[in-house]
Specification:
By secondary structure, the protein is mostly helical. It is built from 12 helices and no strands. The structure holds 2-acetamido-2-deoxy-beta-D-glucopyranose (6 copies). Keywords: Signal.
Amino acid sequence: MLPSLLSATLFLVAANAAAIHGSCRPRDYISASELVQMGALSNCTLETEFPTECRNATQAAPFVNNGFREYNLTSTGEKAALLSLMIFESGGFAFDINHSQNNPGQGTRNEMNFPFILEYALETPRVAAQAKALAGPNITDPSAVPPTTQNAIRALVLPDDLSFASAMWFYTRSGASETGCIDIPDMVSGLRNESLAGWENYITQCVGTTVTEARQTLWETALKVFHEHHEQ
Ligand SMILES: *[C@@H]1O[C@H](CO)[C@@H](O)[C@H](O)[C@H]1NC(C)=O
Ligand SMILES: *[C@@H]1O[C@H](CO)[C@@H](O)[C@H](O)[C@H]1NC(C)=O
Ligand SMILES: *[C@@H]1O[C@H](CO)[C@@H](O)[C@H](O)[C@H]1NC(C)=O
Ligand SMILES: *[C@@H]1O[C@H](CO)[C@@H](O)[C@H](O)[C@H]1NC(C)=O
Ligand SMILES: *[C@@H]1O[C@H](CO)[C@@H](O)[C@H](O)[C@H]1NC(C)=O
Ligand SMILES: *[C@@H]1O[C@H](CO)[C@@H](O)[C@H](O)[C@H]1NC(C)=O
């Protein structure tokens, strides 16, 4: 189930807080109330299943903004696509790993599969040596890494600053060429021009999954929220 949108009362409270703090933040800063309007959880009080994994929008906002800054993503179209993916995959930031036994090693806020988790860990200086040691001789064959070791490597990239930036890393840096999806024909231009075809190209050719109505609705909502709050 996806979280419902914020109640009118909460919205007023949050909007007021944003107005108070807004002046010291860059104009493109995505606020907690905007994240909630996009489908992120405003609080984790009802998320009793995985309480250590849940992050409310206030907690998530700085990590989301830092992720976009770190990977130099500035366009509304790219940000809306990546953010709506993260919100979809993590249930509005309710969880950050796949709790099914059938897909060990899958996690972070965009629910990356293990080969990418390993690659992300190896490219993250502060955890690279640990990831390398855990993978051992299977480093060149991620599918051979035993499930418990896959989960141990995944744990290295679950700290919030890494988990909330993995969608940005995946889009700009993953793969053998370390250019992520940005060399895929029409990828950057298609997301930036905010077309349905461009977003579908991202979902199918970059993320490698299928277009669904639920995913599309979240993307459209994210775009709408960006346009309402970040343009004249
Ligand atoms: C969000 O989480 C922080 C840290 O746990 C907490 O202080 C704050 O009250 C939470 N916000 C809401 C709306 O639950
Ligand atoms: C927490 O969020 C739920 C809906 O997600 C809302 O009904 C409830 O009022 C919120 N509680 C607080 C303390 O913000
Ligand atoms: C972002 O841009 C800065 C300044 O141009 C550059 O130093 C940095 O390497 C870039 N980061 C990424 C992840 O592309
Ligand atoms: C978790 O993995 C299972 C098995 O591969 C899959 O069916 C399910 O969609 C995954 N869940 C998430 C949240 O990605
Ligand atoms: C490497 O993979 C093989 C096959 O899955 C496994 O038996 C072995 O324990 C793995 N080595 C390490 C260090 O995880
Ligand atoms: C937007 O991008 C899509 C996907 O690449 C492309 O088919 C379309 O022609 C572009 N539209 C405009 C107005 O540039």
